[in-house]
Amino acid sequence: MSKEEKVNYGAMWMWARFSPRRILFLLRMSWRHWRAQRRHRRQQRRINGTVPSILAISPTMRCNYNCQGCYSRGRPEDNELSTDELNALFSQAEDLGIHSIVLTGGEPLLRNDMLDLIAQHHRLLFFLITNGSLITADVARRIARSGNTIPLVSIEGFASDTDERRRPGAYETAIRAFSHLRKARAAFGFAATNTAANSSQLANDEFIDEMVALGCAVGFFTEYVPCGLNPRPNWVLDEAARAAFRKRVLDFRRRKPIVLSQFPDDEYGKENRCSGAGRLSLHINSQGDIEPCPFVPVARENIRNGGLIAACQSPFLRAIREQPGLLQRQRYACSLFEHRAELDGLAQQFGANGGQKP
Question: Which residues contact residue 346 at a Cβ distance below 8 angstroms, ignoring those fewer than 6 apart?
Fold first, then answer.
């Protein structure tokens, strides 16, 4: 375990130290993670494939917001996976030893079956990325009772940047969601997209202190990738800004009682290697297509034909993993987006659906 990882765990225990409920949540998650790792090793040998540790799943691409620069805008919203199909997918993930599901989209809570499905799969830890607009006091209590869900409410810094990117009132909506979750004694956090426009706000002590005061246990920073409809190239961080932000995140980890994760640095590591394409993670869209990551809608397999094992044994994803150049990023936060032309060529070779161009 690296020094940075130890600091992260230390921050989590700082968050939990005054609450028996929080300590119990952490112990339960640690136990389930250990059990999942054992299943993961066994199943990887059994199926002769590569089982990811984390799945990103978009149960819907529908959303009640229209945020600028959203990577998922313009993607199909019909033919969503049914409740039974999602239930089967979660069960397969449990059996394969996958320990974490990131629910993204779209707005996952637009699906009325989402919280019931989550509650049925206690061996999984769900990170629910939401704009917070549908988190009422009752929803917050249901999330807290589930014992396996960490909602991450999207926020872009303070009110000015959040409302400008998302919609007027989005900041107050997020703050209200935090309040409901805190009163319900849920474990929760924030999710922020780091751009050239808001980087200074997110790297501010005042912002992190506010998130801690609101009760956030975790925070996820995702560096902006200019994909989807109406991309904003001027939001892409240059190397100096990227390095400066990383330095601030590491500093926060040493000083703040909150666990902070930063994409892409924490994912790519010192080897500068993407974890997508099934190496450690992959994305399943609302129609069941198995994609290398959320930023590149390219797929050969669908979980409706072969289930999750089809993803683990995918020759297309394996071919991506076997080309190291596709997994190395330079200018952008996502290497596969950066190498989209090569990826499309590979998709044509394997008969994959090239999806929507970024």
Answer: 316, 319, 320, 323, 326, 352
Task: Count the neighbouring beta carbons within 10 Å of the beta carbon of residue 209.
Answer: 13
- Which one is predicted more confidently, 76 or 60? 60
pLDDT of residue 336: 95
Which domains does the chain show, CATH number per domain? 3-48+113-268 (3.80.30)
Radius of gyration of the chain (CA): 19
Taking the CA atoms of 163, 165, 166 and 168 in sequence, report the sign of the dihedral they define. positive
Q: How far apart are CA 159 and CA 236, in angstroms?
A: 21
Task: For the chain, give the number of residues.
Answer: 358
Return all residues near 119 (Cβ < 8 A) that are at least 6 apart. 142, 145, 146
pTM: predicted TM-score of the whole model, two decimal places = 0.89
Tokens of 82: 């049914």
Q: What is the pLDDT of residues 173-199, one digit of tens each?
A: 999 999 999 999 999 999 999 999 999
Exposed / middle / buried, residue 280 (Cβ in 10 Å: 0-12, 13-18, 19+): middle
